[in-house]
Structures are given as C-alpha cells and as structure tokens.
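Researcher: I'm comparing several assemblies side by side, and this is the next one on my list. It has 1288 residues spread over two chains. Same procedure as the others: predict the full complex and return the structure.
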Amino acid sequence: MAQRAVWLVSHEPGTPLGGTVRFSRRYPTVEKRARIFNGASYVPIPEDGPFLKAVLFELRLLDDDKDFMESRDSCSHINKTSIYGLTVGGEELWPVVAFLKNSMIYACVPLVEQTLSPHPPLINISGISQGFELLFGIQDFLYSGQKSDSELNAKLNQLPDLLLQACPFGTMLDANFQNSLDNINFASVTHPQKQPAWRAGTYKGKPQVSISITEKVKSMQYDKQDIADTWQVVGTVTCKVPVPPILGFYQVKEEEVQLKIAINLKLHESVKNNFEFCEAHIPFYNRGPITHLEYKISFGQLEVFREKSLLIWVIGQKFPKSMEINLSGTITFGTKNQEKQPFDQICIGGTAYLKLHFKILDYTLTGCYADQHSVQVFASGKPKISTHRKLISSDYYIWNSKAPAPVTYGSLLL
Amino acid sequence: MGPLSREAWAQRLSAFRASPSTSMAGPEGEDLGRDLLSDLRSEKLSEQTKVSLLALSLEYPAQLWPDAATAEAAATSLLDTLVLLPPRPSALRRPLLLAATTALAVGGALGPTSEASCRLLPLLLGLAMGRDLGRGFGPTSEQRPLQATACECLRELESCKPGLLGGSLGLLRSLLGQEGPVQPLSLLLALALRNTLVLQSRAGAGLQGLLMTKVFPTGSGPWDWTLTEDDTHLQPQIPSWPAAERECGAAALEPSLEEAKELRAAVAQLLDTSYLLTPVAQAQLLWLLGWALRGLRGQPPALFKPQLVRLLGTAQLTLLHAVLALKAAFGEALFTAQDEALLLRRLTLAAQHPSLSPPTHLFYLHCLLSFPENCPLGPEGEEAAPLLLGPRLCHGLLPSLLHDPMALLARLHLLCLLCAEDEEEEKGQIQTPQRYLQELLAGLQQRAALDGGPRALATLCFQASYLVARYLGGQPLVLTPLIHGLAKLYRARPVLAPHFVDLLDQVGPELGEPLRVMLWQEVVSRRGTDEALCWHLQLLAKVVDGDSQSATLSFLQDAAAYCTDWVLQQALLRVCRALLRVSGGGGLADLLQALARQLEDPDGRDHARLYYILLAHLAGPKLGVALGPSLAAPALASSLVAENQGFAAALMVQEAPAPIRLSLGPSRAEGPLPVLQLQVEVLQPIYSLELRFQVEGQLYAPLEAIHVPCLCPGRPAQPLLLPLQPRCPAPAQLDVRALYTTPTGLTCHSHLPPLSVNFADLFLPFPQPPEGSRQSFFEDLWDSCLPKGAESRVWCPLGPQGVKPFVSRHLEPFVVVAQPPTRYCIAIRLPPDSRLLLQLDSAQADGVPVALRTDDWAVLPLAGDYLRGLSAAV
C-alpha cells in the first residue's frame, strides 16, 4: 500500500523535451522492500530525466506522431486504465499510475508486494487506489483556489513539507492535504479531548454549515424517428426527471458553397424562466472562416466569430412569453486553414451540433432542496446554516437532424 | 571546509536532485553525506535550510551513505543532533527522527549489533507511549505530533523488519485504549499483529500471550530481536487473494481458546475505532486485518460485519478497493448475495459517475471485470463480466464516440464481453449489442478516415478492431461489416497502410484471412499510378499470395512505370520478393526481367536481376529459405548488399560438422574389379548427398563420386558401391568429403574421417576352371610365377577348430583345389595384373605351413603381413 516514488510533470508541447519535472519524491525504505518483494522482476526507480522521457512517450504527449511507431501505435498496445508500463533503460517499470490534468502529469509507482512477472491483477494491488488518492490529493491541493502560475509555483514549493506530513514514508496518512497544512500551522496546539486522529490542531473560526445543491443537466437531442433524445440530471441527489428544460431542433442543409441553418428552441413551461445566463453556441468545424452571413432571429442577439467559425446566440435572462424562439440563416465559408479554424473528430460532413449553456439559480429540476431550518448539527456551538440551489447545463447538445449523429447506447430505440 | 551558506546549499541540493548519479560521480559527491551531517549542527543555517537537508537524506540515503557502516554512523550522528537540540520548539525533531529511521532501514544497519538501532528503538517506543523523555525532547506542546511521528517510524521499521514489535503488541494495545493518537497507534498495532501472526504461524508457534504482555521491552535489558526474521524473507502483504495465499504458504494457525479470545478483542478494538481514521488509513487497516485473519482457522470474519454496513456505501476509492479485497478474501463467509449485488451496482454507478475523475472510472471498470464473485464461473485471472452484471445494468457503461480513447477501449472491452455472452444465450434473436457495436466501429472508421486527422484517431480505430477480433472472432455477424468497413477505410486513406500491416500481424485468421483477401482486391483493383502508390506497395507486400497472380502482376507492371525514385522501386521489389516466396511462375519472371532492364536506379536493376536469377535457378523450398528473414544489419548503403548477406547463408556452401558416418562393409570378391561396400548412417535427414573420394599417393585411378538423393536417420539404407581401379595392388587411405542439403535448405560441406582400403579388399578370384582341370590350372599358375616373382614360407598358427574353418572364413572364394582336411590350393588375383598363390599342406593341430608364391615381388611383404594378421586374429 506504499508508494515508491511520486512525480509532477508539466506538459509543455512544442518545447525540446516536451515537459519539465516540477516535483519528485522518492521513498527509499519502500524501494528497499520493492527490491526484495519483486525479486528478479525488480526494476529500479529511474532518475527524473529518463522518467520524463518515458512518461511523455507512453502517454502520447510527444509531438512527433508523423510516422507509425510500433511500440506506441500497434493495435495490440492497449491501455484501458491509467496504469502504465514505462520503458526505462530497456526494462519495464510497472505499475505506473499516471494521468494528465490541466497540463500536469500526476504520476506515482505503487509498491507491489510480490513478483511482477507475470503482472498480478491490478485489483489485487492495494497501492493502486492509495496511489490514485495521493495524486488526487495533490491535484486538489494545487488547484483549490489557484488562479495564476505564481500561485501554482507557491503551492508546488509547499509540497515537500506537505508530503513530509501526509506521506512521510510513502504510506499515505491523509489524502486531504488541507488537513496536513493545518497540522503544520497549528502544530503547537495541544488537545486533550478525543478527536479524529488526522486533526492534531483545531480550526479557529466561526462555525458555519453550508448546504448547496447543484444539479447538472446533460442532454442529447436528435429530432429523429429512430433515435430517442436523452437527458440526465446529476447532483447531490439523483432522481428521474420527466422532461429536459429546453427542447429544440437544429437543421443544417449544405447547398453548394452555403450552409442553411434553422434552429428552434422551446423552454418547458414547468421550468423557472429566470436564467443567470443562457446562450446557444453554434460551431462549424472542419470548414474555413465565415465570410458571409445572413440571418433572421426571433429573439436575443447573435454574435459572430468569423475566424473561429462560431456563432453565439445570446438568449439572455428570459425566454419570451411564447417560450419559443427561432433562428434561421445562410452562411458562406472561406478556404479552410487547418491551423486557424477548429478541427473536430466527430463533426464530419453534415454532422453538427449546437450546445446550450445556461444556469438557473435557486432552482432544481428535481425540486430537491435543503430546508435551512431543519438542519441539525451535533456539535458544540451554533454554526450558521446556509443553503443554496442551482441548475447548470452540462454537455447539453442538440444535433443536426439532417445528418448522422453520434448515438449513445441508451438512445437507440429498440 | 566550513559550513556552507544557505544559497550554496540550495545550489548544491538542486544540482544533486537534477541528477544524483552525475552529482555523486562529481568532485564533491563523496563529501555530500558528511557535509550534510555536520552542517545540521551549524548555528549559521536556518531551521528551514536544515529541514531541506534532512529532506534530501530522506530521499537519497542509499547514495549518501551507501553501506551499513556509514549508515550506522549517519544514524548515530542524527540521533546526537537530536539530543543536542535546545529544549525549545523546533521543526527539526520530527525530520531528524524520520531521517535516522530511514538511514538505518535503508543502509541495512538495523539489527541487534547496531548501537544506533539500540538507541533509536527504545527512544521511538518511549515517544510513542507519550513518556516524558526529559527536557531534550522539547516542550510538551511538541509531544503529541512527536508521538505520532514515533509511531510512523516504528511502523516503517516493522515493515522493513517484520516481527520487530512482536514483543510490544500488548503494550501497543493498552496504549490504544488510553489517550494515544488513534490513527498512528491503530496502524502500528495492526501491522505488528499481522506480521506476528504470519511469523508465528510459519514457525508453528502460537501468539504466546504476546497480546497480553504489557512490559516495556527494554525495561532493563536489550531489545527483543528474537521474533524478527531476516528481511530477505519479507512476505507478500497482499491479503488473502487465493493465489497470493498459496504462494506465501501462510499455514493456518489455530490459536488456543484464550488466545483466540484476546485476538478477537484486539481486532474488534481496532475496527471499532476505525471510523476515526482518515479514509486512506482505514483502507490500510482493512487490508492488514483482512490478511491477519485470513490465515487463522476458526476466526469468523463476522468481526468485519458491523463495519460493512458502513463501508458498502462508501464513496472513497481506497475504501471501496479495500472492501473488494475483503470480498475476495472471505467471499460468502462475509458477503451475502445481496451484498454482492449491491457492490456490483455501486461499482457500475461509480464507473460512470460524473463527479468522479476519468482515471477513477477506468479503475472501477477494471474492478468490475475482475470482480471477486462468490461463485465465479470463468477461469481464474481472466477478465470477464460478472454473472450478476446483466446488459441492463451495463447500459450506461457502453462506449460511444464521445468518450476519450482509454474510456472507449475499456467500455468496448465490456461490450465485447456482453456480445460474446449474448451470442451464447440468444442466438437467432435480434442482436442489439452487436448492432450497436457495428455502428460504433463504423463511427471510429469514419473518424480515422478523416484526412489529415491525428494518428491517435487511426490508432484507436485499429485498437478497437483488434479487441473485437480477439473477443468476437467467431461471430461473422460482427466481423463481416468490420472487414468491409476497414477496406473502405483503406480506400479513403491508404496512408494508414502501416496500421493495416500491423493489424494483420496481430490478429488471428478469423479476421486476418478475409481482411487480407479484401485488402488485396482493394489494392489491385486500382491503377498502379495512384499518388498513394508507396502505401499500396507496402500493403501489397503483406497481402499477396499465390492465387490470382495475374491481377497482382498487372498492377505491378502498371506501377513500375511510376516507380521513379529509389524508395518506390524498393517497395515494388519488396512485393516481387513476397511473390517469389509464395509462388513464382512465368509472369513473375517476365516482370523481373523487364524491371532489370527498365528501372532507373542501378540498385533496383541489380535487385531485379538477382531475383530473376534466383527464380530461374532455385526450386520453391530453396527459394523460400533464400528469401527468408535476413540477419544483415539494416543500415548498409545498398539494399542489395544487405539482402545479399541474407542470401549468402542460403546460397553458399557452408562448412559443417558431418552428420554422416561411413564404414566399410564385407568385400564382395567378384567381378573384374574390386568394389567396396560402404555402409552409411545419418544423424539428420539430408538430401542430395554427394560423396567425393580421393586416394592418397595415386595408388588407384581417380574415383567416381557417389550420389544419394535422400537419407533419413533410422531408415536402413542400401550399401553404397565404390569400384576401385588399383594402379598397383596395395592398401590405401581414401580421403572422403560430403556435400549435401539440410532440411532447412542450406547446402553444407563436410570432411569425413578417412577410409582405409585393406590389402584383402583388393582380392579377386580367378575364373573357375572346369572340375577336372583345377589341379593342373593351379600348377600352371604356380610354375609361371618364377623366376620373375618370389616365393616364401610362413607358419600360420590355427585355432582349436583346425584348418577348414580358417580357410572357409578368410579365403573361401579363392580356393581352387580343396582336399580337406590337409591340402588347399588358393589362387588370388590382384588387379591390375598380379597374382598371389597359397598352398596349405599337411596341416597339424596347432598350425599349418603355408607356401606362397607371387609374380610381383612387391606383393610378398603385404601377403606376409596379411597372413600374420590372420594368425594373430586367431
């Protein structure tokens, strides 16, 4: 359940090495056990330089994919988990838990307490989930409230001290690095009463309880006979919902050099017509810049981003009384320039979508809410209690009904 | 050297971290460990700098103090530094304890003979107990964090040296019940308990009341090391998975009633307070206790039951993983069928929950396919969809084009497993998952066909095809559209040819063979003038076969005109080469001849000519060997040179040790010339054997070679006949060489041991005269020898059987007159034109006098030797 080493590598496309090791920590007592447990299959932890090269290659983050390379592109080289074998000095370092998030590669090597050949099933290795938690903990710490590079650097500088607290010997004590930070800051406070073990210090502030319900609604709308529209609401409470909040269709027809588009959106009558914002993004992929546009719009404003080949229909805070709005128009495109206009793997030919972005405060589709007066807290002191609700769109797509669209399994009408 | 400044140290540390190996090899490398220890006591450096020095020693002790002696010295120095700290709050105490622990454990110094160990262990245990260790150990405010740190250090030492704390179990237990910090003590106790149980059960001993002893182990005497074992025998901690258990052979320990009660109490105590631990620590505790109880007979896992109520609903990755470990360890004994169904539902939902990260989804999906079922059906260790995981539950886990590559492949794997089951169960029904799979594959192919798209998209499409071929190879309903789709993809994007070649290399014949045929048609149906000619040729070299050669040849003929540069010509020739291997024929010969004239590049022309010569001169199997994989280095200037190295082995004659044994059979003594009978044995099948003989000293005329088409070991061969034409009647040595072809098609040459032709091998009889005139015939011969020749007399000793068997054994064919038992007249012809006559007269019991005459005096000593040899044999 221990880790042999941890790395943070920033991915920097276009630079000679492709990235930089921003942080690394090795655990020699664990390494010693690895040498004994793994026996003949033991592969030592590499230095940072070779590790950087190997991890970027294995995660396909190096820029050179021009030629077919068997060790990377072979069809039988399949990774179905974030656990890799890295080739270092001709040997395979395994298992390496690694993932990329916000241009940062988080990686660690869990101790496997048996021989590595053949590879034991991942589910039998306790260090795998521990490794994930360690990396998630670091990720949460680095990006909680962080906005600029200098803040990120400051947090990276704090990491050695934090790991000394949270993971001194490679076996993690706490994945919540904020607790460890508190421990450093309040290390001198004694505490006589029995309390959770990971909190050696106490929090000195006003007691406060905040309950927030955020629902995210996803939707895929096709406007087709044989494909069912889908929607999914997820949040702290998940329930089945009778309708998506906004129903619509999107039709695109290609006529010689022009595209003709028609859009209709309708807000369901049961939904609160009071948005913080509501916009429809209408991208045109794999085409040139927009050179000419004629359109008719029943409500709201249309913003045109010619170079990006993108239209944004700003609907605003409210739908009109009819609850229904339309947009139609014809668009002409210039010559495609691979570098400037967006490329997409799915929107090929007539396949196209519009994506809705909206947010409604103090509202949930499910009707779920927390009653601020019914919240009981079993602790000394009287915390202030506040509750919030909001509905946010998330992956809310309406597909062009005049061309094929990617279908999820659930929406096939069987 | 005096103490370094903060900046100097910062520089030195970052240089070291950048590359420890380079840094250690540098001029200051060796001193780093020593400087670090001494500067820890410097008053000029801030605590923060000293903490970073200690941090380095925590990561690289093996480089700083590479052997046991230096590690011991370093630990001693670190402990001294700790004791010398002034009694005010300091950030150094904790890292000093960690550093001393690390140095001892990594340096291999930990043991009863190490003074530092004997100082550190009681110190750590004292701190863990919350004892007042005197003013050296800082203000009371630091006691609590130091107590936790001491527990961590002890846990690490126990991990590296199992059994170290076996004697302190009772003490630790009593501490946990009092005011000690719950998490560090719980984890320490659980580890020490697990290790003790494993060690004691292996030693066949019980717990020996260890859980009850509450004495400080160093109360008066030294630390008790008797329960530890050599650290080369660390046992796998992986609790309780059946395979792991068998491997480590944790014999079941059956504790006494009293011990079992104590053990249950200790485990229950640990579990009861486990909710106070952080989730990751709880998970560690569960893995440890699961392992501890697994090896114990009569310990029902029901102790875990109250925790499961809480844990089955956990949203924590580590805890859910630990629950799965318990599930694998105890199965039905702990988890009901309902629990199992609930776990599966939770895993299914967790594998797609939007608030969890993609790596977590993938791990849960892996757990689903490796789920430890109560009653598993499939083979152990192979990924499979659990029985209770029906298609309905999987709905949300199926792949779609919107997923990222890893998620798509993982989900596709699941879909393939479902399709495989589906076929078994619902043959004939509308196969919905199959239909969905088809559409998905079509979508992937469409994406891969996108002009200028990233290679990763193409790779994904081929990976998916590979998975489908692997799991659904027997389902034509899936494979047929896949093959058509792939052919269409090739039509759209021939630049993907290397991916197709790779796919054909990796998949089995169910997909590979029909796909190969389809792709072949796809290529040859085009005109060879395409822009993508290079890719077509690359693919064609993989997919040609002996059938329908004319289409391939006409494609190549068209293409040849457009192969203007070296690269294209080589690609073209590679296809020719592939054709040579699989078939041959007139059409190919014509093409090669045309290429040998027409290609612009001299290397290409030479190549074509070489292929033509090979085709014209070698039979099929030999051609196959000649064109087999070349061992030549690929970077040679001319591809012809490179390939020639491959041919060299196949076409040239190789020296080899002889797999043939030749021996002389009995001589035939008939006909006009002596003929040797050669017996031949072989150790391996050989073909086209040619045996060449050479006579030393030109005693005989040059000998003809012998040819044998085929010889096999164990199959009796006819004797080979070798006629001799002696120029004088003398024995000789024959030098023998063999040329032959091995079953692998190589032609070999071997030198065999020489054959000796004996004097007697040259004997031939005279034509037999008519019955009445034999005596006079012999007498005429006898008289004609002199005066030119020579005469001699020899006493020839006989064996107990007398003269008759002697004659019949050695001289029977040459007897002219026989008057047994006393008189024999023997006439021997010696080619080219000599004779040897023997008269055996008045034989006695122990021997016979032999009178011999010859017309060639040079024969006389040979005849004498021959007769003496016969006597000696008696």
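Model: For your comparison table: The first strand of chain A starts at residue 3 and ends at 11.
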